[in-house]
Amino acid sequence: MQISFIGMQTQEVAIKPNVRVVMKAEAEQLEEVMVVAYGTAKKSSFTGSASTVSSKSIEKLQVSNVSRALEGAAPGVQVAMQSGQPGESATVRIRGIGSINSSAAPLYVVDGMPYDGSISAINPSDIESISVLKDAASTSLYGSRAANGVVVITTKRGNSQKSKVTLDARMGINSRGIPEYDIMKSPGEYMTTYWTVLKNQLGSGEKASAGLFGKLGYNPYDTDNGAIVDTNGNLTSAKLLYQDDWEKEAISNGTRQEYTLTVQGGSDKSTHFLSLGYLDDEGIISNSDYTRLSLRASGDYTVNEFIKLNGSVAYARGEQNSQAISGLSNYVNTFMFTQYVAPIYPVYAYDGKGTPVYNEDGSRRYDFGDGTYGNRAWGSNQNVVASDAANQNQIISDNVSSRFGVNITFLKDFKFSGNMGYDMTNQMQNRFMTPSFGDAAASGGRGYKYRTRSQTYTINELLNYTKEIAGKHHLDILVGHENYKYMYNYLYNAKTKFFDDLVPEYSNAITMEDMNSYSNEYTIESYLGRLNYDYDDKYYFSGSLRRDGSSRFAKDNRWGTFWSLGGSWRISKETFMENVSWISNLTLRASYGSVGNDDIYYPTTTTSNYYAYKTQYSVSNSDGSFAVSKYYHGNPDLTWETSYNFNVGLSASLWDNLLNIDFEYFNKKTEDMLYNVPQPMSSGLSYISKNALTMTNKGFEFTLGINIPMPRDMKWNWTLTGTHYKNKVTDIPEDKREAGITHSTYYNIREGKSVYDFYYYRYAGLDEKGHSLWYRDSKDKEGNITLETTDDYSKATKYYIGTALPDFQGGISTEFSWKGLDFSIAANYQLGGKIYDSMYASLMHAGSDAGRNWHQDIRNAWSETNTTSNIPVLNGNQNANTFSDRFLISATFFNIRNITLGYTFPKSWLKPAAIENARIYFAADNVALWSKRKGMDPRQYIYGQSQANYSAIRSISVGLSLTF
């Protein structure tokens, strides 16, 4: 007797009174299908390199931005969550450093078309899958915009089944995911430590005790200002009048709510998918949140056996309230200020007896250290708890994304496709800084308004020919044309001197400070072709060619040609493998090809220059007359930056797919890199954009999947991914080879080294008096270089001191299910690499910044009784904590990014209520992080320097999913 079922292998069993049949999946039919450039491909036949993230994996995560779902989910992909601010995108890098003076972000493609809208506008619940395309065979057909890889997002569509309605609702709590640095919290501890600074400076305990209040400006104790600390450095027994915790006052938990309603279904003639989503994601500081209302409708309609139509329209309105969280010198940066301000300074105002001071409306009055209640030595006239509540920075975005297409089949083997995509983002940003205190007080308050509008049109026409010959030869030819146009409009203005500190509108201000506007346009015209051939389902070949014309270059250099060749061999299909039953699949593949890049930033900015071949001027007012000045020197000789990618990979499935292995080696060489080359001062130019550098990224990546044999109704699998790569600059302009090119304060580009190698001073410890020493090169009489130390920071030599790039990175996950119960854990890790811990360095000053807090490690500073320490003596030296390898720290980490526990109710329980499916679940994101130093989050700093960014948020939610 034969028993068969769709998607399962046919089973032959003997006829008996009782027969138990265990069906096995049909590998051919259930084979993974990936969305690739201008179509789909079976994983086994694909000659390129791609990884897929399923909707199941995405839906487990509590992310307001889809880019964060890639963290640890695909090999070769590095993700940095630079800000925990709800709604913010992650930084995504594919297989190393794509470029230096241009965007290194991948191209995003949504439903077959390049997407320039906001990634945060896409509801993660609407996504069917994400494919990450990594090599030339998979990306070259996208041409010039695919130099840094491609992230292909495919949204859900209808099906030919009865319509189903699904409601998914989840609610939870957001909290701080990363703790503070181990800073001083005790006013007494801070006072006695700063007393030590004064004693070392002034030479006696008496002078230190007498001068303490004068240096710090505050006395939180019920004692005379000159008797806070005795002459031996001990805190007196005076009563502490107040002790406010800045972190607890500034940072608190928020709530998170997310709801999605979908309708999915159709018939043989037409299908439909409708979704409505709402997200309310509160941050952990005041005026910090993100809300999104999203709508999506898509449909497919079969007109007849020759013509099919498809289309989708999506709208999203996002409202993001945020604070100015960036940099270590920004006094309104909550995550900087709350850790830098000394614990002797209160959040709220107190009188001389320690009694709280209240406003007329009964609210607590904030302390600003401005002389009203004391004189702060640090952060005077600043209070982030007050400014977070009073200042506003709101961004409202309206996003529209549409896709329409027609497919016409004719002459049996031909298909014509015409497709159009349109994306539009209207954005309004309103920023207000209160006139009552803080940075804008001297200006009477500041208001900024930005209005931007971006639009992109993509239209392509594709002709596809497919032919099967003799049952073994399969031919697929694609030719096409594509036109892409980008338009951007920008308007900005600013006013000061606000009358009412509660009204941020311009009608409340009298002085126009600034106004500006500009627009950009960018066009790419493309012709493309692809050939896919396979023989007997064993040997596969692919070739692609694309010619792009970019408006970014002068007419003579506008066109670039990019191509790829790829092949794969399904070894397991060979006759000599027929008796090797433990190998289910064994495939070898390789590819080589080129992709281009036409993007370059303006010098010292991250703003794209759409007219880099033209010299550009600015116009200003000079006593009522025009003043014209050159701000960018154009280069008409600029041409395409080209990357040549080699990829070879091996895929194996063993023991009926119990073990699955994917291994790939890649070598990416980028030539004629677009770079803003520094010029000698004598030339009168600061930078000139040139095709100047050559760079390589070489490495390997792997995915290891294990399906553990389990009893009936149980499933358990593990997945491990890993990536290693090395970045190297192999050619720079000849006149720069000796000294290199200064890339930033810390990085110097040199031949044979990485773009993100640190070049700076090496710390040599302390001299016999506890003063800092650094290494320097010196020449002896014969001219030989010798190593010596110096206590003069300006005479130290810069050396290679490490790299910001990790040695290894990847992810690990496990999923377990038993009947209706499901449990999963997802984690990611990084090994090696360095981060310059700017926060820690600033907290290790030697007393030069009176009123700034210290890290607890400062208690181990050198003294006459602690001469083995390598922390400089506390004497107020400005250079004691200056940049050196002393503050480089390992970027290694292990992060549990998600835990999900769910239960799907038996259908027999649900049938009386007309419910088809019901699942309840618990989810936690950013569960735990292990790194080298408490408070330092290596995940935020992909290029090696901590900046007191918005802390990662831990989200814990419960949810319910119902299908009717």
From TrEMBL:
Ranges in coiled-coil conformation: none
Span of domain TonB-dependent receptor plug: 43-150
Gene Ontology CC, one term: cell outer membrane
Key words, A-Z: Cell outer membrane, Membrane, Transmembrane, Transmembrane beta strand, Transport
InterPro entries in the cross-refs: Beta-barrel_TonB_sf, Plug_dom, Plug_dom_sf, TonB-dep_OMP_SusC/RagA, TonB-dep_OMP_SusC/RagA_CS, TonB-dep_rcpt-like
Compartment(s) where it occurs, according to its Swiss-Prot or TrEMBL record: Cell outer membrane
Main localization, broad class: membrane
UniProt topology in membrane: Multi-pass membrane protein
NCBIfam families in UniProt: OMP_RagA_SusC, SusC_RagA_signa
Family to which this protein belongs: Belongs to the TonB-dependent receptor family.
Protein's name according to its UniProt entry: TonB-linked SusC/RagA family outer membrane protein
UniProt source species: Prevotella heparinolytica
